[in-house]
From TrEMBL:
InterPro entries: Cytochrome_b-558, SQR/QFR_C/D
UniProt keywords, alphabetically: Membrane, Transmembrane, Transmembrane helix
Protein name: Succinate dehydrogenase
Keyword Nucleotidyltransferase: no
């Protein structure tokens, strides 16, 4: 196993696998959060299920946290190794896309996303953990109603938070625009399907962050 992580290709494959996992998480995270625009009651029901289901809480959530930390740590390791290798860049055999501005700056967009994730955990995740596991209130209720929608809307009252989130989502789009195809490439999956994959990658990388921007702005201006 240590041999795997010591090889350049092993590290890239590990990076790609964690990236796929995070992109899948992001898709379901988006699907749930967009419900807050279209149907707050369903958003509340789904949030309560996800927040109290033992399988989600004690199996999926720890795997997710591990995936997030792993991706960041591995990203820094790859960056340092690439720097050391002097010019031998990550996702090397990528033709014209190789020299794109974004491919050289994955570490910077990554750091911006890391800063967002820290802020986002302080905003949402830590209060959740506090209510459920420290206060010990698993009911999901406040004044007899589900609290999730109300708590989410409250967070987007502050224009500074909305601006910080929107900037982070732009960085997320830039990170994904390169990362999506790069991850498939590290798995050797592009040959023959390059154009289709690139198009799916572009659509995903723009629609998901744009959708998150819409959620933040919608709640800021509508409540
Ligand atoms: C407008 C956009 C977003 C909203 C409204 C939102 C909302 C939330 C909420 C309510 C939680 C708490 C869930 C819980 O623990 O019960 C949460 C957790 C989390 N969010 Fe977001 N999120 C947004 C965007 C993002 C983005 C873009 C990312 C990743 C880059 C992200 C990553 C996470 C992670 C890793 C967690 C902790 C895991 C979890 O418990 O689900 N979120 N988010």
């Amino acid at each position: 196993m240590s041999g795997f992580f010591n090889s350049s290709i092993g590290r890239k494959v590990a990076m790609a696998l964690s990236a796929f996992f995070l992109m899948f998480f992001l898709l379901q995270h988006f699907a749930i959060n967009i419900l807050s625009i279209f149907n707050p009651d369903v958003f509340n029901e789904v949030s309560h299920f996800m927040g109290t289901n033992p399988l989600v809480q004690y199996a999926l959530q720890p795997v997710l946290i591990f995936g997030v930390v792993f991706h960041f740590v591995m990203g820094f390791v790859l960056e340092l190794r690439n720097k050391k290798a002097n010019g031998i860049k990550y996702a090397k055999n990528n033709g014209a896309a190789n020299s794109s501005w974004m491919s050289r700056n994955m570490i910077y967009s990554g750091i911006a996303i890391l800063a967002f994730v820290v802020l986002h955990f302080i905003d949402f995740w830590i209060p959740e953990i506090n209510t459920k596991y420290i206060v010990g209130d698993m009911s999901g209720l406040h004044n007899g109603e589900f609290r999730y929608f109300h708590e989410l809307v409250e967070k987007f009252e502050n224009p500074l938070r909305v601006v910080a989130y929107v900037i982070a989502f732009v960085f997320l789009a830039l990170h994904l625009l390169h990362g999506f195809t790069s991850a498939f490439q590290s798995m050797g999956a592009t040959a023959g399907r390059k154009k289709t994959l690139q198009n799916i990658g572009k659509a995903y990388s723009i629609i998901i962050p744009l959708g998150f921007i819409v959620i933040a702005l919608f709640h800021h201006f509508n409540h």
